[in-house]
Amino acid sequence: xxxxxxxxxxxxxxxxxxxxxxxxxxxxxxxxxxxxxxxxxxxxxxxxxxxxxxxxxxxxxxxxxxxxxxxxxxxxxxxxxxxxxxxxxxxxxxxxxxxxxxxxxxxxxxxxxxxxxxxxxxxxxxxxxxxxxxxxxxxxxxxxxxxxxxxxxxxxxxxxxxxxxxxxxxxxxxxxxxxxxxxxxxxxxxxxx
Length: 193
Known about the structure:
Blueprint: H1 2-26, H2 33-41, H3 50-54, E1 58-65, H4 69-83, E2 93-100, H5 103-112, E3 117-120, H6 128-135, E4 141-144, H7 147-152, E5 156-161, E6 164-170, H8 171-176, H9 183-186, E7 190-192
Helix pairs in contact: 5-6
């Protein structure tokens, strides 16, 4: 009898913890990474400066926070999805990966490698404001896997709103990084002014 009561107590505890975790994670539900990349692949024609920024090939850098399992998972997932992608805005794609060390080193690599699209994963939200400052007046599209990235200074983030994926666009950051989205796209996004 005692073993059975312990089993039910443990089951109840696991259920309660599961509900709490789900409630916590639903506060910022994630748009599937494969869908994020498909949406990004369609952004090219909606950015007036995209082809000039990219040149003959779209250089993409996917950055993770070293030691963060969720960040590593997102990076690996994004790399797999990008490997299946033929083009972004009609241009071939070259994808590379990096561990985040510091903002200055990352910005330097972006300039040296002519990165057109910088993809930030989980765990880099707190570093995004400083990165945005360092990348100001550059020519780069910064994208984060969550809306918090855009709220903190990336140009684009993703959110689930009413169970639908939605772009979150930070307009001041877009202007500072020479990203010029067409009105048709802006009308579909949640804008940070």
